[in-house]
Amino acid sequence: MVKDILASADKRLKVSLEHFRKELSKLRTGRANLSIFEDIKVDYYGAPTPINQVATLGIPDPALITVQPWDPSLLEALDKAVRGADLGLNPINDGKVLKVPIPPLDQERRQEIAKVIRKMLEEEKTALRLIRRESRESVEKLEKDKAITEDDKFHGFDKIQEAIDEATKKIEEMAAAKEKEILGR
Hints:
Elements lengths: L1 H24 L15 E4 L2 E4 L4 E7 L2 E6 L5 H9 L8 E2 L4 E4 L5 H38 L5 H34 L2
Antiparallel strand pairs: 1-2, 3-4, 4-6, 5-6
Helix pairs in contact: 1-3, 1-4, 3-4
């Protein structure tokens, strides 16, 4: 029974770590990276549609992303969506392809992104604490219902804490690596 709770907590921790990794990958680093476009939606015949479902994205060089719409009439909507995404990007529309130059980050923008990383780290730590609390409550309920012994409860608490500590260490390492990449240290 405690094993089930630990397995559930472990699964939730893996989902949380993957979510954090994806969110970090969306941050702009000064190099072309298609993941910064993941959340951009284009107005496609009245329906907000992910950009990668209406166009081919490419990286011809480290400082440029190309967006080639499958339907040329979408070029203006794509331009508007990229400009409105608050990424600080100014696409160039050549009539067939949208060229999005990725400008190098200035020091002020680097500091802003580092703050965002620290905020994301704190939010993720809060999510991990919630997983820990819910898992501990489940173990306590088992003990209260006399399904497990007090020793089993404390052993379960230890295992939950080990898993949380490991996950916390991983997200801190991911955040530190991303911050180092952004700040160029």
